[in-house]
Amino acid sequence: METGNILTAFTLTLFAGLAMGIGSIFSFMGKKTNHKFLASSLGFACGVMIYVAFIEIFPEARESLVESFGEEKGLWITVLSFFSGMIFMIFTEKFCLGNHGKEEKDCCHCCNNNSLYRMGVMTAIAIAIHNFPEGIAIFTSVLKDTTLGFSVALAIAIHNIAVGIAISAPIYYATGSRLRAFSFAILSGLLEPIGAIFGYILLRNYMSETFFGVLLSIVSGIMIYIALDELLPSAQKDGEHHIATYSMILGMGVMAISLIII
């Protein structure tokens, strides 16, 4: 393996991951008092999460698990892993984030801010988990074919811009801190190059289709739960129902185009 190819693969993977920072910057364009901008940002993020989970991640997980276990067993494992991701989020909210509920009753504004912040952090965690195998996918694509790898990296970078908005918008509106919102997006994005190097060097002899299939299916469940339980309800607050819906459709459209490019 040529050192130049490895360097190119790492550079393109880093580029795709850091694109989330661009999305983060876009999320700062509206004023914190602009509820319509917040509704549109969260609706857009919801569309991104739902489309990526159902159109990209879940089918990829199903394909890997069917290949490993056969049609019927593979589908069962995919579905069970998907709902395991949702159950994981339910228990996480109940036992790890449950104390917020008591504290938030005293102040509506505080309640809304805590909810938005929690939403952004949960989104960042889910995307970070997803970015780990995604980084390996970019890295290996470049090693196989530089031209193909560049196209894959560019397409993923485009959709990472949208994902950066999904992470940063709720955190920025909850805390008012651009630095904190930007940091969460960048740290999540850095899981792509880290995942690429870590996976290639340390786990290349142990990773399997089964491992990635189960992981990706769980992540898709987590993303759908966040979109439906956190992003969409928050986007529809303050009577901005149609703005949230239209923005959600726009988010799906942006993701559809970026995936077609791949």
Unreliable stretches: 99-109
Helices and strands, in N-to-C order? HHHHHHHHHH
Alpha-carbon distance between the termini?
Answer: 25 Å
The main sheet comes to: none
Mean pLDDT over the full residue set = 78
- The amount of helix comes to over 70%
Q: What Rg do the Cα atoms give?
A: 18 Å
- Domain unit count: 1
Count of DSSP E strands? 0
Total helices: the number is 10
Structural class based on helices, strands and sheet pairing: mainly alpha
Q: What does this entry look like structurally?
A:
By secondary structure, the protein is an all-alpha fold. It has one domain. Helices cover 88% and strands 0% of the residues. It is built from ten helices and no strands. Helix 2 (35-69) packs across helix 10, helix 5 (108-144) packs parallel to helix 7 and helix 5 crosses helix 8 (191-202). The chain starts with a helix and ends with a helix.
Summarize the structure.
The chain is mainly α. 88% of the residues lie in helices and 0% in strands. The two termini are 25 Å apart.
List key phrases describing it:
single chain, 88% helix, mainly alpha, globular, 10 helices
What is this structure's SSE topology?
Layout lengths: L2 H24 L8 H35 L1 H26 L2 H6 L3 H37 L1 H30 L2 H12 L1 H12 L6 H27 L5 H21 L1
